[in-house]
TrEMBL record:
Taxonomic superkingdom: Bacteria
GO molecular function, one term: zinc ion binding
Location of the Enoyl reductase (ER) domain: 17-344
Record organism: Bacillus pumilus
Entries under Gene3D superfamilies matching the protein: Medium-chain alcohol dehydrogenases, catalytic domain (3.90.180.10), NAD(P)-binding Rossmann-like Domain (3.40.50.720)
Protein name: Alcohol dehydrogenase
CDD domains: CAD1 (cd05283)
Length: 349
């Protein structure tokens, strides 16, 4: 148990560099640690923002990846939650203080000490974290979730970020029967958001730049679909929605989207562009409207989301790629040329 675990990885040496194959050492197992043989790792747009250092402060070399699924290969002496052979997942976080009011409330993502992100972060010992584009990872059991039997490990992987990042705000803002919801942007997050909002019983409109994805949006459970490139869309839909979930990776015209909210409606942002958005305060006060944001979701809620996805047959639509195709996949995500999530088959690493 006291030896480290060598792992082949895909890493970038600096911002916007191509991926290269290297090896890293995962830490020797501590009593509560789990060693996971990673099988699949999804490509989230946040991986691209990070590897391109869009948000600044990037830690290089960087091994991205926070949509991790695999199988337990070994467990520390004190582990009770999992055993060797279990099918498991790891999302965006690998540690938190565990004692602050938010950790105690199962909102580890808002830990006051600072949640430890799965990659591009320092852990509480000051060591850089490396993510899921990797054969192995060691994670403390509190941050590992079970993958329900109904979900295959490749299809499940995007749920570990795209799934929980959309499920959590939909639940928090009480999306359900009688609520009208608009999902803005139909990429990795957006296409899963439609499925969750539909399963929660809401009436869903998809707002995408073009009409290209309309048929698929309706098949995922949307009732309506409009192109935001058409200015008529904003006139036709004025004042209609209780909640708008913005999943766009770039800046949006916030005022235009606020005008689509009913009185007391909320524009919830999960998309994370590097540059600040702007809006006019009149867009809020004329309708007692709110602007909000949401970061991923807690670990208990992630397990709830996975169980919900299994029960309601929610499945990300994925394109499985091999380890040599990641640079190309990044270019395609940036061109919105993905339907709807790339997932790396880690056995090709
Ligand atoms: P994605 O697959 O690339 O989807 C983003 C979608 O945004 C695209 O499919 C496209 O939708 C739309 N879009 C892209 N560029 C646009 C532009 N210039 N103008 C208008 N619309 C544009 O990305 P993702 O993986 O879903 O991630 C989306 C964003 O969420 C990223 O910024 C990511 O960092 C962020 N994120 C945040 C959290 C969180 O905790 N808050 C967690 C995960 C990800 P259409 O083609 O339909 O228009
Ligand atoms: Zn993500």
């Amino acid at each position: 148990m006291c030896q480290t675990h060598q792992s082949h990885v895909l890493s970038v040496s600096h911002a916007k560099a191509n991926f290269e194959r290297t090896t890293i050492e995962r830490r020797a197992l501590r009593p509560h640690d789990i060693l996971i043989d990673i099988q699949f790792s999804g490509i989230c747009h946040s991986d691209i923002h990070s590897a391109f250092d869009d948000w600044g402060g990037g830690i290089f070399p960087m091994v991205p990846g926070h949509e991790i699924t695999g199988v337990v290969a070994a467990v520390g002496d004190a582990v009770t939650k999992f055993k060797v052979g279990d099918r498991v997942g790891v999302g965006c976080f690998v540690d938190s203080c565990g004692t602050c009011e938010y950790c105690q409330n199962d909102d580890e993502q808002y830990c006051t000490k600072g949640v430890v992100q799965t990659y591009n972060n320092l852990d509480y010992d000051g060591e850089p974290t490396y993510g899921g584009y990797s054969q192995k990872i060691v994670v403390t059991e509190r941050f590992v979730v079970s993958i329900p039997d109904q979900l295959s490990l490749d299809v499940a992987s995007p749920l570990l970020c795209a799934g929980i990042t959309t499920f959590s705000p939909l639940k928090h803002w009480d999306v359900g029967p009688g609520k009208k919801v608009a999902i803005v942007g139909m990429g990795g997050l957006g296409h899963v958001a439609i499925q969750f909002a539909h399963a929660l019983g809401a009436e869903i409109t998809v707002l995408s730049r073009s009409l290209n994805k309309k048929d698929e949006a309706l098949s995922f459970g949307a009732k309506d679909y409009f192109a935001t490139s058409d200015p008529e869309t904003f006139k036709a839909l004025a004042g209609q929605y209780d909640v708008i979930l913005n999943t766009v990776s770039a800046n949006i015209n916030v005022d235009a989207y606020l005008s689509l909210l009913r009185v007391d409606g909320t524009l919830v942002n999960v998309g994370a562009p590097a540059e600040p958005d702007q809006f006019h305060v009149f867009s809020l006060i004329t309708g007692r409207r709110s602007i909000a944001g949401s970061l991923v979701g807690g670990i208990q809620e992630t397990q709830e989301m996975l169980n919900f996805a299994a029960t309601h047959s929610i499945a990300p639509q994925i394109e499985v790629i091999n380890a040599n195709q990641v640079d190309e996949a990044y270019e395609r995500v940036l061109k919105s040329d993905v339907r709807y999530r790339f997932v790396i088959d880690i056995s090709t690493l």
